[in-house]
Design brief:
The complex is a heterodimer of chains A (102) and B (187). Chain A is an all-alpha fold. Chain A has a single domain, classed as Helix Hairpins. Chain A is built from three helices and no strands. Chain A is elongated, with a radius of gyration of 17 Å. The N and C termini of chain A lie far apart (54 Å). Chain B is mainly alpha-helical and 187 residues long. Chain B folds into three domains: 1-87, NADH-ubiquinone/plastoquinone oxidoreductase chain 6, subunit NuoJ (Four Helix Bundle (Hemerythrin (Met), subunit A)); 95-125; 135-172. Chain B is built from six helices and no strands. In chain B, α2 runs antiparallel to α3 (59-84). The chains are: A mainly alpha (102), B mainly alpha (187). Chains A and B meet through α1, α2 and α3 of A and α1, α2, α3, α4 and α5 of B.
Chain lengths: 102, 187
């Protein structure tokens, strides 16, 4: 295979996943938390496709497309929740959404 | 083999540009204060990921990535950010609190864990890629797998998408009815 071997793609995917996790833990705006979850999903997708290339089977790409569809569903529900929050005049701050705290 | 090594250098160059664009725009998404700029940076991230997919011979997934993610999903994101008037939210405001330090430590721990687990489990088996035919990653091959080996995943995905669409409609409808003073409260 031309270019870098699978290890380098996996390193990129691991860094992407950690950067997304950092965003989820660090940011307070629910919009940016959703964007960071997208980064995490894409890191996992890159690993799936890299392993698909490693084994020479297309099944990993099928998984990646399924992940893409699930991510699209997640964005629809997440954005619906954020719009519903803003219509009820709740603060767009995940640290202040604590009414379910036990 | 001159032609082969020249091609190798070109592929390494494309990989470097795509990988660093990918990681840089991911860091930009996390660190921009304005959600609008974060969403724009995520489009760059998804596009450079599509280049990496192309380098891995996943042509159909790369096309779907650009169409579905960088196209449809991000347009929806940008509409919602425009609708909410994206309030700026500085990520590093107020100096390093225990929350910021904990988040960075947890993310670094995840990175180290992933790298160690991959290194231990895979060892040096990662440099022998399997041989691929010309059908690898083509739409025909993906479609064949979806309708034979992965038929259940295909059908369940359609139900998930339907549930998400219904959920989105219900969330939008419900909040409008509660909030609209013309309709009145529900008691």
């Amino acid at each position: 295979m031309l270019g870098p071997d699978i290890t380098w793609y996996l390193v990129v995917s691991a860094i992407l996943f950690s950067v997304g996790a950092l965003g989820v833990l660090l940011r307070r705006s629910p919009l940016i938390v959703l964007l960071s979850v997208e980064i995490m999903l894409n890191g996992a997708n890159l690993a799936l496709i890299a392993f698909s290339r490693l084994h020479g089977e297309s099944d990993g790409q099928v998984f990646a497309i399924t992940v893409m569809a699930v991510a699209a569903s997640e964005v629809v529900v997440g954005l619906g929740l954020i719009v519903a929050m803003s219509r009820r005049n709740l603060a767009l701050d995940v640290d202040r959404l604590n009414s379910l705290r036990g | 083999m001159i032609a082969g090594s020249a091609g190798n250098v070109v592929v390494w160059g494309v990989w470097f540009v795509a990988a660093f664009a990918c990681l840089g725009s991911a860091l930009a998404v996390v660190s921009f204060a304005n959600p609008f700029f974060s969403a724009l940076a995520l489009i760059g991230n998804l596009a450079s990921l599509a280049v990496l997919y192309l380098l891995l011979n996943a042509e159909f997934v790369a096309a779907a990535q650009v169409l579905v993610y960088a196209g449809a999903v991000m347009v929806m994101f940008l509409f919602v950010v425009a609708y909410l008037g994206g309030e700026a939210d500085a990520p590093w405001a107020g100096g390093p609190s225990w929350q910021v330090v904990g988040a960075i430590a947890a993310a670094a721990a995840i990175l180290v864990e992933i790298v160690v687990v991959i290194g231990v489990a895979a060892g040096d088996g990662l440099s022998n890629e399997g041989d691929i035919s010309s059908a690898f990653g083509s739409p025909a091959e993906i479609g064949r797998l979806f309708l034979t080996d992965h038929l259940l995943a295909f059908e369940v995905t359609s139900i998930v998408l339907l549930a998400a669409a219904v959920g989105g409609v219900i969330l939008g409808h419900h909040s409008r009815r509660v909030d609209d003073p013309a309709v009145g409260g529900r008691g």
